[in-house]
Amino acid sequence: MIRPDFEKMDGLVPAIAQDAETGEVLMMAYMNEESWNKTLETGEVHYWSRSRQELWHKGGTSGHIQAVKSIRIDCDDDTVLFLIDQIGGAACHKGYRSCFYRELADGEVRECSPLVFDPKEVYK
């Protein structure tokens, strides 16, 4: 069994969610050992919320869960890559398909990922 080395960064490791079908990078968050174990147990990605200091089931409120298709860990055991099926179409809490919805190109900032839902309606 492979597992992240949670000791390297004070108990947290970066976790990247990537669409298993398209390869699109959807988000990056952090995991601790508890969220890692919960993810393995449920098959849905759980993260550690640094701002709320609590376990965070991605999509627990919005319904936009991340079903795990494959898990990869880098060569240093300190970053996790989840290949996922993004249920509901949006990974970003601001309603976009990807948290990386803004792009700087030719000195201009533009949106490069579709808006899927209105966060004011979802997070009442």
Summarize the topology.
Elements: E1 13-19, E2 25-31, H1 33-42, E3 46-49, E4 54-57, E5 66-73, E6 80-86, E7 102-105, E8 108-111, H2 119-122
Parallel strand pairs: 1-6
Antiparallel strand pairs: 1-2, 3-4, 5-6, 7-8
What would you note in describing this structure?
The structure is a single chain. With 124 residues, the protein is mainly beta. The chain has a single domain (13-116), classed as Phosphoribosyl-AMP cyclohydrolase (Ubiquitin-like (UB roll)), CATH 3.10.20. The chain has 2 helices and 8 strands. The strands form 3 sheets. The chain has a 4-stranded mixed beta sheet. Strands 3-4 form a two-stranded antiparallel sheet. A two-stranded antiparallel ribbon has the order 7-8. Strand 3 and strand 4 form a beta hairpin. The longest helix is centred in the first third of the chain and has 10 residues, at 33-42. The mean pLDDT is 96.
